[in-house]
Amino acid sequence: MNSNPATPMNPHAPSSSSAGAGSPDSNAPRRNSKRPKYSRFTQQELPACKPILTPKWVISAFMLVTIVFIPIGVASLLASRDVVEIIDRYDNACLQGTKSQKVQSIQDPTRNKTCVRRLTVTKRMKQPIYVYYQLDNYYQNHRRYVKSRSDQQLRNRGDENETSTCKPEHEANGMSIVPCGLVAWSLFNDTYSLSTGNNRTLTINKRDISWKSDRDEKFGSDVFPKNFQNGSLIGGGSLNESIPLNKQEDLIVWMRTAALPTFRKLYGKIEQDIEAGETISVVLENRYNTYSFSGKKKLVLSTSSWLGGKNNFIGIAYLAVGGLCFLLATTFTVIYFVKPRHLGDPSYLSWNRNPGGH
């Protein structure tokens, strides 16, 4: 007798074959899909402007740019032409000899550094007349030079010992330097005194020559120079230890480092008119050493216009773009009339045939 009788088959029980692949059984686990949920935004089906660049539209756009840019360029050039600018390079004129002789002379503290220059005014200069000094081949944007300063020390009196970022000009004689760093150490120290031929003194106003944000936020009213230029090697100008840093505007102007090797910095403003034909006598102290690195020093007197100083580049750039657009518009117009091209029917474009995207 068989001890394991066969179990009778249940006709209602599901067979193993019915649970195979492709089974429509709703209880079977569904595979996770990475397909994102449909959205008109993600599928870029939102209503949008899809212009058709016909010749008329292209020519009109170029002509519009021409009409706008050419008057702006002409106005910019006229404004720049009205600016009167006098530039005088004095480093070679005030010191003669070879490079080594010039370096030795400029570093000699006993040598007289006074130099007299005469400038002729060719066109009437209306006040205010801005006095700049210009340095060439001077890389204030050098990484080590730019980083050699302590903004925290410049703002707060209690942080005068925060000089870790100022090396190598961080201390002298065992004490911290305020302001520390190479930027402050190399402060420009040439001075200028101006007068006209009729013995009229041209007073240079040094107030408000720096950015107001720098005076109010970057330089503290309770921070005073301390132990400055007391090291073995003197870099540039000295500072009055009784005047807080936010009042020493020559320093503030110098500490805003330039991005290019040729730059101008504001020395002061003359608030008097100078007539055409007058001769300006400049008595300057040629102290700043640019001879070691073949740099140049220039004195710049300039008026201003509604556009700023003398700058022909903006006007030329606007005229160039406007002229180019006019040339392209003219060329396309000639081609359009001489050899026109038949355009297709825009109704056959996909977004016109199927606006909903389905």
UniProtKB/TrEMBL annotation:
<feature type="compositionally biased region" description="Low complexity">
    <location>
        <begin position="10"/>
        <end position="29"/>
    </location>
</feature>
<dbReference type="GO" id="GO:0005794">
    <property type="term" value="C:Golgi apparatus"/>
</dbReference>
<keyword id="KW-0812">Transmembrane</keyword>
<keyword id="KW-0472">Membrane</keyword>
<dbReference type="InterPro" id="IPR005045">
    <property type="entry name" value="CDC50/LEM3_fam"/>
</dbReference>
<comment type="similarity">
    <text>Belongs to the CDC50/LEM3 family.</text>
</comment>
<feature type="compositionally biased region" description="Basic and acidic residues">
    <location>
        <begin position="149"/>
        <end position="160"/>
    </location>
</feature>
<protein>
    <recommendedName>
        <fullName>ALA-interacting subunit</fullName>
    </recommendedName>
</protein>
<dbReference type="GO" id="GO:0005886">
    <property type="term" value="C:plasma membrane"/>
</dbReference>
<feature type="region of interest" description="Disordered">
    <location>
        <begin position="149"/>
        <end position="170"/>
    </location>
</feature>
<dbReference type="GO" id="GO:0005783">
    <property type="term" value="C:endoplasmic reticulum"/>
</dbReference>
<feature type="region of interest" description="Disordered">
    <location>
        <begin position="1"/>
        <end position="41"/>
    </location>
</feature>
<feature type="transmembrane region" description="Helical">
    <location>
        <begin position="57"/>
        <end position="79"/>
    </location>
</feature>
<feature type="transmembrane region" description="Helical">
    <location>
        <begin position="316"/>
        <end position="338"/>
    </location>
</feature>
<dbReference type="Pfam" id="PF03381">
    <property type="entry name" value="CDC50"/>
</dbReference>
<keyword id="KW-1133">Transmembrane helix</keyword>
